[in-house]
Design a protein that fits this description.
The protein has 242 residues and is mainly β. It contains three helices and 15 strands. Strands 6, 11, 12, 14 and 15 form a five-stranded antiparallel β-sheet that branches. A three-stranded mixed β-sheet has the order 2-1-3.
Length: 242
Amino acid sequence: SGNRVVLLEEFTGKGCTNCPKGSRELENLLTQFPNNLVAVSLHAGFFADPIQFPVGVYDLRTDEGEYLINYLSQPIGYPSGVVNRTPVSGDMQQGLNQWASSITSAIQVPPGIEIAIVRTYDVNTRQLVVTINGIGKEDLSGEIRLSVMITESGIVDAQNDLEAGGIVDDYVHKHVLRDMLTPAAGATVLNSINTGQTFSETYSTTIDAGWAAEHMEIIAFVSLVNGNDIPVVQAASAHLMD
């Protein structure tokens, strides 16, 4: 379609008193850029550790999230997020006041690759099959990696929220990374792509019985990897269920 879709990866934790401010800004941005932004909240690092911060019931960490907080660099302070895996003034992690301008800049650049998500979900077996179809919109040289995430919203659990005055027992966590169908750093699909060249990758998994499939999303994105540069070329999202 030529519509640039930007990825925002927000790093958070239930013990982080300032993080809900970032989560609220994330919701504002999703409203502001309804067709140009997808988001994931990664509970990872010190503030997400239930031993350090025994807040609530659930451990919302994932192995992939713990990998990504190091792969994308540890936040200097919170709230913190990464926009399209592209550094600003040398820093991959950005404060919430930088997110909007970074998104605005990113959507001005037409995507070099377009991707589409096709999925089937069996409510009885909870089997999910996801196919990502891609096509080159320009000639690109470098390793092209595909990442596929599954997120869940509507998770009610406690959160330490400074603006709300402390522990909120019925806080609603949104866009929480639950699983990845690819390796955490992405799966290599091509070493270059030409205009009009296509690719297709299919993955399957069984959705955990404790997760609410009706509140889940599939997030897919392609990155162009050249050494330490790992910018996201294009992202897409789809509801797991109709």
